[in-house]
Each structure stands twice: as C-alpha cells, then as structure tokens.
From TrEMBL:
GO terms for cellular component: plasma membrane. It comes from Musa troglodytarum (fe'i banana). Pfam families: Rad60-SLD_2. Keywords: Cell membrane, Lipoprotein, Membrane, Methylation, Prenylation. It is a lipid-anchor. May serve as docking site to facilitate the association of other proteins to the plasma membrane. Residues 7-73 form the Ubiquitin-like domain. It is found in: Cell membrane. This is Membrane-anchored ubiquitin-fold protein. The lineage of its organism: Eukaryota, Viridiplantae, Streptophyta, Embryophyta, Tracheophyta.
Length: 111
C-alpha cells in the first residue's frame, strides 16, 4: 500500500485521552474505525462502548456516517501537510427498552 494512501488518525476520548495515532488506508470506512476503537478502548474507563453504534465519530464538527470512507471525510483537512488528524469520539449507548412491572423506564446516560 503506497504511503500516500495512508492517513494517520488519533481518537480523542471524552476525558481527553487518546487512542492512537494509528495509520489507516484512505479506503477504510468509519464503521471499520469504530470497530477498531471498541477493540482498543481502555478497560479502566467508566463508560465503555459495547457495539459500533454506541460510538459517534466527529471530524471538522460533523458526525461521520458509518459507510463514509476516510478519503471522503478528508476534504476539510486534505490541504494540510501530512500529520496526525484527531477525530473526537462520543459514546452514546443504544437506547434499549427496559420494563419494570410493565411500566417503561427511560434510561439515563451521562455525557
């Protein structure tokens, strides 16, 4: 894989710590990045995502869609000299319906 097809990314977690930097192919999808984030998530954190849909990636102020490739996300920073690109990670657990005595209970999440 040619070196220019690789993009170095790091993922900033909610508490300011990072995962990475790690080099990815420009053809990698956001869904692939989320799977990698879950596999490398520090186990000592209070909030731990369980599935890719629990993770939102933000780059240049935009929430990235799962089927988008890194190359498609790259336009805002495509003109920058080579360096590490930081994407922000938001953990938003999937909503699940919980019932207690037949009455629905809405889950409460910390930001």
């Amino acid at each position: 894989m040619p070196d220019e097809d690789l993009i170095e990314l790091k993922f900033r977690l909610y508490d300011g710590t990072d995962i990475g930097p790690i080099r990815y192919s420009a053809s990698s999808t956001v869904a692939m990045l989320k799977e990698r984030i879950i596999s490398e998530w520090p186990r000592d954190k209070k909030i731990i995502p369980k599935v890719a849909n629990d993770v939102k990636l933000i780059s240049a102020g935009k929430v990235l869609e799962n089927n988008t490739t890194i190359a498609q996300c790259r336009s805002p920073f495509g003109e920058l000299p080579s360096g590490v690109v930081t994407m922000h990670v938001v953990v938003q657990p999937s909503l699940t319906k919980t019932k207690t005595d037949g009455v629905g209970v809405r889950p409460c999440y910390l930001s």
